[in-house]
Structures are given as structure tokens and as C-alpha cells.
Amino acid sequence: MVFQAPQNLLGRDFVVGDIHGCYYLLDKALRDISFNPETDRLFCLGDLVDRGPYSEAVADMLKEPWFYSVLGNHEQFCIDALNDIVDEDILNNLILTHQANGGEWFYFLTEERKKELVDMFLQLPIMIELEINGKKIGLAHGNINDWDTASYLVKCAEDRHDNSVMGVIWGRTRIRQKNAIPAKGADYVFLGHTPTQQITVLGNVHYIDTGAVFGGKLSLICLNDYVSKD
Q1: Number of H helices, E strands in the chain
Q2: Helix (H, G, I), strand (E, B) or coil at 16
Q3: Which single residue of 40, 139, 181, 196 could bond 128 by disulfide (Cβ 3.0 to 4.6 Å)?
Q4: CB distance 120 to 59 below 8 Å
Q5: From CA 142, how far away is CA 200, in angstroms rounded?
Q6: Given pLDDT bands bounded at 50, 70 and 90, which one contains residue 229?
Q7: First-residue to last-residue Cα distance in the chain
Q8: Main-chain dihedrals φ then ψ at residue 61, nearest 5 degrees
Q9: What is the 3-state secondary structure (H, E, C) of 46-65?
Q10: Other beta carbons within 10 Å of 39
Q11: How deeply is 147 buried, as exposed, middle or buried, from its count of CB atoms within 10 A (0-12, 13-18, 19+)?
Q12: Tens digit of pLDDT for each residue in 127-153?
């Protein structure tokens, strides 16, 4: 559940905030920076789907070899919707919650298509680590206090509903407390999940969901340039 990405020796690495089905905003952003799929890579912070109009199109980008993402809570909504183990009342409440949070599109799909997308979401890691310019970069969706502690607990977790995993996906503790104590175990951490008007930095933790689906900006950062500023 923690993926260590190999170094990209050919091109650039980018990280993008929550896309939420805004396929054409992402397409324009990639064209604006002359993204080269032969050499460049794009890392996403989860919440590829829901709320925006083109969730399927964004989800299908997971088939591209240059497109990476961690698991967001909205992908987890889709996974849980196909859970046939939980009680029917619990499942119905979960589905209603998902639909109320922009997930209506998912329930118009055929069962085969739902399963295809969920199978892709189940392959997504909870955390991604990569190295750029000698610096360790950590990517996750919701919350990180210390990177090394969180990654250890996630690696030890028995399933994706473990409290440590759910905390990384759903948590907002650091940003709510405005905790600027650096996260140990990584030089830079990038998170999404919590919309902010502009990129917000707390210690070495960068929140880059700038609310694209709510009329804000889709923040796309070239990690090679950003990290080399030190």
C-alpha cells in the first residue's frame, strides 16, 4: 500500500491536486506545460472522480503508463459501494452519502463498468514515495503527521479499513490545527483532500487541492523545478 516509484531519468515529474472529474482542465494544464507522455510522469493526490462532469474519463487515465495516483476517499466510496459483505442498511447509507457528495454518475454505470473501475481503484496505493534531486517526496491524499510513522503503519495494516489507512485518506488533523511542525521521514509531502484558496504550506507539507471543481484552480507543480529551489 506504499509504492516506491523508480527515478525518472528521462523527463519531468509533476504532481496535481484533486481532479474530481475535471478532465478538460487537466488536459489544458498538461498542454500548457508541454507534457510529454513518452518521458514525463504525472502523480495525482487522489479524488480523481466525483463532483465533476468527466469522472470516467479521468479514471480511465489510470490505464496510461505515465499516470499515477494515490487512493482518495472518493475512489474509496466507489470501492465500498460494491461491498457485498456489509449489512444492506449500512451499504444503502454509504451509497446515499456517496451520491450526496458527487457520486451519482457511478450508479448510472453498468455493473461490469463499475467493477472495471473499482478494480483499477483497488490497485491504487495509499502513499507514494519518490526521489527527485536527492530529496525524498511523499504523496498521499488527506493527512500526514510524520511520513515515516504513517508509512510504517500503512505497510503493517491488514486492509484498507485499518484506522491508520483511513487516517491518511480521510484525515484533516494537520491543516485544521495549522500544524507547521515538519513531517519526519520526507523532505517534501504533498496532500490534497482539503480545498484551499491557494497552495498552503505547513512545515514541509504542501496542500495543493485548490478547488478546481468548485471554480478554483487546478494546481499542477513540476517537482523537478520545485524541489531544486532549495
Answers
A1: 9, 10
A2: strand
A3: 139
A4: yes
A5: 14
A6: low
A7: 30
A8: -65, -15
A9: CCCCCCCCCHHHHHHHHHCC
A10: 12
A11: buried
A12: 999 999 999 999 999 999 999 999 999
73 Cβ neighbours under 8 A, 6+ residues apart? 46, 47, 141, 142, 169, 170, 193
Mean pLDDT of 5-23: 97
SS3 24: helix
Strands 13-16 and 41-44: parallel
pTM for this one?
0.96
Confidence grade of residue 158 (pLDDT, cut at 50, 70, 90)? confident
- Which positions are catalytic? 74
- Which of the four pLDDT bands, split at 50, 70 and 90, describes residue 230? low
Residue 185, phi-psi category: left (phi > 0), alpha (psi -120 to 50), beta (remainder):
left
Which string of b and e fits 7-22 if b means at least 16 CB within 10 Å? Answer: ebeeebbbbbbbbbbb
Query: Which of 215, 226, 189, 199 lies closest to 22 in space, CA to CA?
Result: 215
